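> Could you send the S41 family peptidase prediction when you get a chance?

Sure thing. Input:
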Amino acid sequence: MGATLKMAGFVAVGALAGALTTMQFQAAARGQLSPLPLEELQQLAAVFSLVKSDYVEPVDEKKLITDAISGMVSGLDPHSVFFDKKSFKEFREGTTGKFVGVGIEIGMEDGLVKVVSPIEGSPAFRAGLKSGDLITKIDDTAVKGLSLDQAVKKMRGEPNTKVILTIFRKAESKTFPVTITREEIRTQSVRAKLIEPGYAWVRVSQFQDRTVEDFASKVAELYKQDPTIKGFVLDLRNDPGGLLEGAVAISAAFLPKDVTVVSTNGQIADSKATYKANPGDYSRRGDDPLKKLPAGLKNVPMVVLVNEGSASASEIVAGALQDHKRATVMGSQTFGKGSVQTVRQITQDTALKITTARYYTPSGRSIQAKGIVPDVWIDETAEGNLFSVLRTREADLEKHITSGQGEEAKDAEREKAREAALKKLEEAAKSKDGPKPLPEFGTAEDFPLQQALNRLKGKPVVVSKTQTERKAEDAKAN
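Output:
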C-alpha cells in the first residue's frame, strides 16, 4: 500500500471552501477510451452548431465545450467537478493551507453560501463576518443558482483586489454589503492546550499538508507541559476533511500499529484499497512524523468530539477510533461524506475530479450519506440544540450517491426537528437580542467540551435532550 500511495501522488478528502476533496493525481490514460455513443454525440454536435449560428450574440467555442463538460460532470453527484485552469490551480492551493481569498470556511444552505466559520486573522474575520451569515451576492452575481465551487471561484482572486459580499444575517434580520480585500490566507489547522491539569484538548480544523507534523509537535509540547496527561479530547467539530494521509496518521497516533484505519471500494481496481496504521500508508516524505510522540498517547483515555460539520477525513478518524473501541465519540451525527474523488489530469492545466469509490470504517460500515453516529449524543448548548439540525448533511444534497448498504430511509424526526428549529430561530430573530451565538470551541463556555471532560473524569454527562425525546417517542410508538 505504501508504494502505491507514493506512486499515486497524494490523496485528499473533504468538502468546503478550500476545495479540499479526496484526490489522487493521475494522468488520464491514453488509448483506453470507452466506446463513444455516436447518436448522442451527433446530437451534441447539432446543438453546438445551432448555438453557434443562432444565438442572439456570438459565443466563445471553448466556453461552450467547457460548459458542456462541466454540466455532464456536475450531473453525476455533488462532488464530481471539472476543473478549468483557474479552478485547478485553486484546488491544488487548497491542500497546502495557503490560498488567496477572503478567508472563510463555507457550506451551502437553501441555495446560498453559508459562512461556517471565518478563519481567524483573515480579511473576512477582520471585516466582522460571523458563523451562520449567508452570502446572497458576490459582487454583482446572485449566489442563488451557483454551485459551491462556482462561489469559491468568484471569491478567490489576486492579492490586494477587492470583492463585495452581500450578507444576510439571520440573527439581526438584515442584509448589508461588506467590501473585503483579498490576501493570501494561511490557515492553522491544529490548535492545542491543556484545559486543566491532566486534560488535553487538540482541535484539528482541516487535514492539510502540514497537519500531521503540527499535530505531533503540539502534542509533544502538551506532554512536555504535563507528562501525566490522563485524559485527551480530540476535537473534530466542523472539520471538513483534507488529506487522506492526515486522517490515517492522526488515527495511527492513537491506534496499535498495522490495524486497519479505513478501506475504499469502487468499480476500478485502483479504488480497492486498505489503509493501515503504518508509516507506509501515511508518510509521503519518507520519515515517520509520529515517531517521537510519547508512548502514553496509545493508551490515554480519550473522547472524540464531532458534529454535523465533521466530514470526510474527520469521519474516517472518528470511525476508526470508534470501531477499534479506542475512544468514545461524542456529539451529533456527522456529515456523511464517505465518497472518494480521484483527480485525473486531462491537460497540464485542467483536470476532472470524479467519484470513484466509497469509504468504509474498519468494521465495514459505509460512511456515505450516513456519517458516524456518536456513542454519546450531546447538544450544542446546555439549553439544547438550535443550529445543529439546520446544518446541511450529505443526505440532504441533491444527486448524492447512496451508502450502497441498503435502502436510505428518510429521517422524519429530523425533518420535524428542523421545522421546530426554524420556527424557534424566526422567533428569536424578532426579539431584541436575537439568537445567542454558539461559544468558541475550546473555551469554558464550550458545553460539548465540558461534557467530554466529565466523561473522562467519570462524572455524569448531560446527554442530548433532543435524542432523549426521540428515543422516548420511538419507544411509545413501538
